[in-house]
TrEMBL record:
The keyword Magnesium does not apply. Belongs to the WD repeat rae1 family. Coiled coil: none annotated. This is Poly(A)+ RNA export protein. WD repeats lie at residues 54-95, 95-136. Keywords: Repeat, WD repeat. The keyword Acetylation does not apply. PANTHER family: MRNA EXPORT FACTOR AND BUB3 (PTHR10971). It comes from the Eukaryota. SMART domains: WD40 (SM00320). It holds the Pfam family WD40.
Length: 330
């Protein structure tokens, strides 16, 4: 049952959603999906949404990210291309190229540099004014998930490798580790203070990892997205709240929850949606939480239901749902 107060986005994608990202400047939501399209919606103060623009890849669009100034959207696709849409001109151009599909794209906090992570086992850095990458890094395996905050960039690959980068030296892997979780990585998200990251896997687990060895005692993992019948579901997305530093998880069980890593507790669970939740995003001030409900293909094409069309929802975030708990005095 959905939270009745959540707003449904009009004119959603026609196939499963692969990425959500809000502009850092205004309440514009970019959505990439398996129907080859990237769509941009304006979220009005009333909660209603207006489709503003869309552009296409030549294959499924697998990720989407906004430039820091809010004027451009970049997406990566199965067509091995990174494409940029300029909000001011309405034009889309190709700005990146890999030998295999581009699974991840993120603008770095410094400058107008774009990082793309691909199944060709590389990360490439792009200055959008140049057709050739300004840097390339060889990864140990295919890039499955990537996030960046301040000087920190974390890329998670196949075979459970995690590569940590200090963006002061972006073409060298600062630290390579193995995921603390036993199974395949689905998502990775950097802390708001850049001191570490959260990683989610297909086995309904999240790992909290600090970069500095001195803080290793704070590392821990926890179970989530499991049901009373002991069914285990993938953690598809993790997002940190931009103000409070608390975070969300969403999964194949059709639920999302808000958590506080410092107090190691769940702040609020939300009711089950009618379908799996594949992607989530907070807006720039954390007052809106967007989530995509659609088939996650975890059981293959035979279980896909033509009637289950993708839906996008917007949840108005209340402070009492997301604010950190006061640690107990000892």
């Amino acid at each position: 049952m959905m939270d009745n107060k959540d707003f449904e986005v009009a004119n959603p994608p026609t196939d499963s959603v692969s990425g959500l990202d809000f502009s850092t400047q205004a309440d514009y939501l970019a959505v990439s999906s398996w129907d080859n399209q990237v769509r941009i919606y304006e979220v009005q103060p009333s909660g209603t949404t207006v489709p503003k623009a869309s552009y296409a890849h030549e294959g499924p669009a697998l990720c989407v990210t906004w430039s820091k100034d809010g004027t451009k959207v970049v997406s990566g696709g199965a067509d091995k291309a990174g494409r940029m849409f300029d909000i001011t001109t309405g034009q889309s151009t190709q700005v990146a190229q890999h030998d295999e599909p581009i699974k991840c794209a993120k603008f770095l906090d410094q400058g107008n540099v774009l990082a793309t992570g691909s199944w060709d086992k590389t990360i490439k850095y792009w200055d959008l004014r140049s057709p050739t990458p300004i840097g390339t890094v060889q990864l140990p395996e295919r890039c499955y998930a990537m996030d960046t905050k301040g000087p920190l960039l974390v890329a998670a690959t196949a075979e459970k490798y995690v590569c940590v980068f200090d963006l002061n030296n972006p073409t060298a892997i600062f630290k390579q580790l193995t995921s603390p979780l036993k199974w395949q990585t689905r998502t990775v998200s950097c802390f708001t203070d850049s001191k570490g990251f959260a990683i989610g896997s297909i086995e309904g687990r999240v790992g909290i990892q600090y970069i500095d060895e001195k803080e290793a005692s704070k590392n821990f993992s926890f179970k989530c997205h499991r049901d009373d019948s002991k069914n285990i579901y993938a953690v598809h997305d993790i997002n940190f709240h931009p103000i409070h530093g608390t975070f969300s998880t969403a999964g194949g069980d059709g639920t999302f929850s808000f958590w506080d890593k410092d107090c190691k507790q769940r702040l609020k669970p939300f009711p089950k949606a009618n379908g799996e939740i594949t992607n989530t995003a907070f807006n720039r001030n954390g007052s809106i939480f967007a989530y995509a409900v659609n088939y996650d293909w975890s059981k293959g094409y035979k279980h896909s239901r033509p009637t289950q069309t993708p839906k996008l929802y917007l949840h108005a975030v209340r402070d009492d749902e997301i604010k950190p708990r006061t640690p107990k005095k000892r």
